[in-house]
Amino acid sequence: MPGIDKLPIEETLEDSPQTRSLLGVFEEDATAISNYMNQLYQAMRRIYDAQNELSAATHLTSKLLKEYEKQRFPLGGDDEVMSSTLQQFSKVIDELSSCHAVLSTQLADAMMFPITQFKERDLKEILTLKEVFQIASNDHDAAINRYSRLSKKRENDKVKYEVTEDVYTSRKKQHQTMMHYFCALNTLQYKKKIALLEPLLGYMQAQISFFKMGSENLNDQLEEFLTNIGTSVQNVRREMDSDVETMQQTIEDLEVASDPLYVPDPDPTKFPVHRNLTRKAGYLNARNKTGLVSSTWDRQFYFTQGGNLMSQARGDVAGGLAMDIDNCSVMAVDCEDRRYCFQITSFDGKKSSILQAESKKDHEEWICTINNISKQIYLSENPEEIAARVNQSALEAVTPSPSFQQRHESLRPAGQSWPPTARTSSSGSLGSESTNLAALSLDSLVAPDTPIQFDIISPVCEDQSGQAKASGQGGRRTNPFGESGGGTKSETEESILHQLFIVRFLGSMEVKSDDNPDVVYETMRQILAARAIHNIFRMTESHLLVTCDCLKLIDPQTQVTRLTFPLPSVVLYATHQENKRLFGFVLRTSGGRSESNLSSVCYIFESNNEGEKICDSVGLAKQIALHAELDRRASEKQKEIERVKEKQQKELSKQKQIEKDLEEQSRLIAASSRPNQASSEGQFVVLSSSQSEESDLGEEGKKRESEA
């Protein structure tokens, strides 16, 4: 008998798409076997039940045996030995098709019992295990989804324990069910042959017993053939028993060895991280955006193939290209409050993917593997050895300051010197340097013993807070959303220019010069070299807002302003000469490492092919700010002229009013000096109230004149 195709029980825990695809082939084969055996069972049932139609039923059996080689079995379809054996049986059965009237008792024991047992016990067992496995697989997927949705910021030990226990239970159940299901499918390949051959053997033996007296029809050659078939059946049974025993032992060993692997996030002390890998495969959750703010996460099987990252859905025969990861960038990110997320960005910045690993170990191994592939280490003869050598060199190299707190510790007068390796190493060089940079000394561009800062914590914030306290405004709290309590608009809202760019902060370091673009190029080289040496992949993504007053780094999720760079303090900005995604600017601030009051810090960012556009935007903002300042000064001068004219006009109006008052007083005085004449009838002239008031005013005027 030829070899039997088997499902790999050892790969049940990994549950890869290839294993599922192979399982689908075995399930199709089981369905085909079930269909064929049902037909054969019906044919033999007709032999047993319908004695009057026994001849026709025997003929149908012979016909089905002849058509065995035409059946499209996914497994074992080219079994020539089985086909030839069945062909021989069909010939003999066809010759004896008219002699089965009295065989009901023998057929019930020798023919119907084996095939009925196979149909009712073995095939139903396969169907039951299939249903149980499907339920266990669905439960495991649901548990994994719940575990993937665990909050990173609001961890609840009770919820985490329940979810982890659920994943452990469901994974163990799926693994055990899958192993037994694979064992049953593998055993089915043996039972298929036994179920095909044993009933036929019993049938022929019943025929021989029935036609004992007609043995002239059964020659020695046929008896030898039947003997060989019986021996083959026994051999297949012994092979099946041996294989079943081996598979059962394998299942027991795998259950014991795989128990720690059921936990989704294993203990890193027991399962250390392998940082020298150049190939990796496993399940990841991929983020797919479905709208402006909504997204879905799909769990797929990912594996690396050369310089490509491949993805494969469960049930697919082969994987498809997900992304070209040659010269790509990879970093850990925070995304939708999910743990163990990382982002892969292609070399041209046009395509990026956010993936979520299942555990911290997988998270770090995926980042290290993709970073090794990005360096094209896989093209060498011994990629893992070269990756280990690179990582060992990184461990031996100097570790630059990864935070601003360590940077301030380095500024303390403790006499500690910074190793120069972080500045002089060229393993992470950006490429060809300019000829002007080669002619300059590094110490003339970058301050000696300068630490590198990789996170967004700027001394600008501390200087501003210190100035605010010095001016008596330290108690006022800044609204991060740009809204003031008095209802007035902020300077940013009044700015003419508003341009927003997506940038990723690479690092910053203090420089000695701020009048040469080579300072920016040299800072880029040193920061990227330090990142490459020390495998620093994490980059903080922000929104860079360019206005006429300042540059702002804004958190893309909370919209809180992380840093503010006053535009007048930005004295130099430039884009990398070859990689247009890289740009940087030099900020002149007060204080620093030197003894002088002013210091210059160079900030380096990565954008999505918008480096030149950002620099042009900063230049436009400075031009607009310059013109706005000139316009403001001209407006203030014009307002001063208008104020002088208005003052002169007021003085002239006041003088005219004084002259008018004097003229009115003179008229009233003249009117009051005339004598009051009485009429001939003794009547008097009655003055009006206005005239009396004028006369009073005239008298008062006379008194003032007399006093004067």
Automatic annotation (TrEMBL):
It is a peripheral membrane protein. Gene3D superfamilies: Arfaptin homology (AH) domain/BAR domain (1.20.1270.60), Pleckstrin-homology domain (PH domain)/Phosphotyrosine-binding domain (PTB) (2.30.29.30). SUPFAM superfamilies: BAR/IMD domain-like, PH domain-like. GO terms for molecular function: beta-tubulin binding; phosphatidylinositol binding; phosphatidylserine binding; protein homodimerization activity; protein kinase B binding; protein-containing complex binding. Its main location: other. Residues 645-666, 699-708 have a biased composition (Basic and acidic residues). GO terms for biological process: adiponectin-activated signaling pathway; cellular response to hepatocyte growth factor stimulus; insulin receptor signaling pathway; maintenance of synapse structure; negative regulation of Fc-gamma receptor signaling pathway involved in phagocytosis; positive regulation of cytokine production involved in inflammatory response; positive regulation of D-glucose import; positive regulation of macropinocytosis. It is found in: Cell projection, Ruffle; Cytoplasmic vesicle, Phagosome; Early endosome membrane; Nucleus. Residues 501-637 form the PID domain. Residues 397-433, 465-491, 645-708 are annotated as: Disordered. Residues 673-692 have a biased composition (Polar residues). Residues 277-375 form the PH domain. Keywords: Cell cycle, Cell projection, Coiled coil, Cytoplasm, Cytoplasmic vesicle, Endosome, Membrane, Nucleus, Phosphoprotein. GO terms for cellular component: actin cytoskeleton; cytosol; early endosome membrane; early phagosome; glutamatergic synapse; macropinosome; nucleus; plasma membrane. The gene is APPL1. This is DCC-interacting protein 13-alpha. The keyword Coiled coil applies. PANTHER family: ADAPTOR PROTEIN, PHOSPHOTYROSINE INTERACTION, PH DOMAIN AND LEUCINE ZIPPER-CONTAINING 2, DCC-INTERACTING PROTEIN 13-ALPHA. Pfam families: BAR_3, PH, PID.
